[in-house]
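[recover] target loaded
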C-alpha cells in the first residue's frame, strides 16, 4: 500500500561500494518500494521491542510482501537491555531459524534496537546485511546513520561494538506521532548538536522553530531530520571510522556518557544526558576563552526550549565524572579528548584542557 501524500526525500551516505540511501518521509513502513529492494535474500529477521512491536510491526510486515521467510524477535524495551545478552538472543534466533549469510536483519525501533541489531549483523557469520528502520527522533537523526553499532558495558557506554554500515535507512516520519514528549526532547538534543558543531544557520532556524518541532509539526520535523541526516552523512563520508572529523559528532557525549553510566542506563535518556553534556562543553569552551557569555546563554536557552535538563545529577561529584570520562573511547595516550566549540557552528577536538579548568567547571556546574 503506497502513500501518496508526498514523495520521500532521499539522501546518500557516500562510502563507495558500500554507499546507501536514507529515505525520509511518511508512509514508508507499509510500502514495499522502500524496504524490499535492500534485502540480501529471502531470509529476513525483524528485531523490535515490546513498545514498538504493537505499533508498527504489522505495518512493516505489509512492506515486506508474502514471498519471504520472515521471522520476528521482540525484545524488552529500554537502555538497560543494551547488553551482550540481548545480542545473544538475536544470534540464537538466527541460528534456530537456520538463517544463512544472505539473510537480512531489520532493526525496527529506537537507538537501542538499532545499535544491537547492527552489532548482531556485524558478527553473525562474520557479517550479514541489515536495514535500519528508526522510530524515534534520536535514532532517525543520529544513531541509525553511520554504522556505529554496539552495546553498553557497566563501566562505559558503547564500549563493545563494531563499525558496520546498513544497506539502507528508512525514516518513516509517521512514527513520531506516537513518540512521548520526553523522547522527542531527547531526540532534539541531537538535532541541536548538528547546528552547534557545523551549521549556525540551522541552529538559528531551530531557535525559531522549536515550538513547532515540539508540537510535532510535520513540515518542521521533516526539515530538521533531513538537515541533520545530511550533515551526518557528509561527516561519515569524510571519516567513516572516527579517525578525525567524525569525533565532532560527540559534542557533549563525554560528559553525557558519564552521566548515563553513573546513573544507570535508562534513568537518564541518552539525549537528556547529551543535552546537559553539551551545556558543560559550551561552558568549558567559555572558560577557555572561545565563547562569549552571550553564546553560552543562547545555547542554554535553546536546550531549555527543547525541554532538556539544565543541570547534572546531584550525586555526581568531580571525581565521579572524571573517573568515567577517563574511559572515553576518544581518549588517546591517557589524554582526555573533548569536543568543544570555537564559536557556535564550529567545533574542534581539544586534548589540552588544563586539569584545574576542567575540575573547576565540574565543581561549579549546576546540580539537581
Amino acid at each position: 500500500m503506497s502513500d501518496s501524500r508526498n514523495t520521500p526525500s532521499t539522501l546518500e551516505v557516500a562510502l563507495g561500494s558500500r554507499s546507501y540511501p536514507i529515505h525520509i518521509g511518511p508512509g514508508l513502513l507499509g510500502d514495499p518500494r522502500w524496504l524490499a529492494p535492500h534485502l540480501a535474500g529471502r531470509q529476513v529477521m525483524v528485531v523490535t521491542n515490546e513498545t514498538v512491536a504493537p505499533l508498527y510491526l504489522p505495518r512493516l510486515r505489509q512492506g515486506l510482501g508474502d514471498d519471504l521467510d520472515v521471522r520476528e524477535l521482540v525484545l524488552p524495551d529500554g537502555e538497560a537491555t543494551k547488553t551482550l545478552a540481548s545480542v545473544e538472543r538475536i544470534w540464537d534466533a538466527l541460528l534456530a531459524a537456520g538463517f544463512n549469510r544472505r539473510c537480512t536483519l531489520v532493526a525496527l525501533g529506537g537507538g537501542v534496537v538499532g545499535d544491537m541489531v547492527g552489532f548482531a549483523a556485524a558478527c553473525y557469520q562474520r557479517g550479514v546485511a541489515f536495514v535500519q528502520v528508526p522510530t524515534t527522533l534520536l535514532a532517525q537523526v543520529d544513531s541509525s546513520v553511520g554504522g556505529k553499532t554496539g552495546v553498553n558495558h557497566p563501566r562505559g557506554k558503547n564500549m563493545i561494538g563494531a563499525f558496520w554500515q546498513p544497506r539502507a535507512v528508512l525514516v518513516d516520519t509517521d512514527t513520531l506521532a506516537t513518540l512521548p514528549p520526553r523522547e522527542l526532547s531527547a531526540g532534539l538534543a541531537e538535532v541541536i548538536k548538528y547546528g552547534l558543531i557545523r551549521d549556525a544557520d540551522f541552529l538559528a532556524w531551530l531557535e525559531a522553530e522549536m515550538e513547532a518541532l515540539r508540537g510535532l509539526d510535520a513540515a518542521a520535523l521533516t526539515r530538521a531530520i533531513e538537515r541533520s541526516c545530511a550533515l551526518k552523512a557528509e561527516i561519515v563520508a569524510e571519516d567513516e571510522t572516527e579517525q578525525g572529523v567524525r569525533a565532532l559528532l560527540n559534542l557533549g557525549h563525554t560528559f553525557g556518557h558519564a552521566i548515563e553510566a553513573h546513573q544507570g542506563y535508562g534513568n537518564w535518556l541518552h539525549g537528556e544526558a547529551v543535552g546537559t553534556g553539551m551545556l558543560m562543553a559550551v561552558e568549558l569552551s567559555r572558560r577557555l576563552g572561545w565563547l562569549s557569555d552571550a553564546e553560552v546563554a543562547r545555547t542554554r536557552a535553546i536546550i531549555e526550549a527543547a525541554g532538556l535538563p539544565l543541570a547534572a545529577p546531584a550525586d555526581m561529584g568531580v571525581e565521579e565524572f572524571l573517573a568515567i570520562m577517563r574511559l572515553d573511547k576518544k581518549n588517546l595516550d591517557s589524554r582526555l579528548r573533548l569536543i568543544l566549540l570555537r564559536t557556535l557552528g564550529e567545533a574542534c577536538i581539544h586534548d589540552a584542557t588544563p586539569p584545574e579548568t576542567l575540575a573547576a567547571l565540574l565543581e561549579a556546574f549546576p546540580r539537581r
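[recover] notes: The first helix runs from residue 32 to 35.
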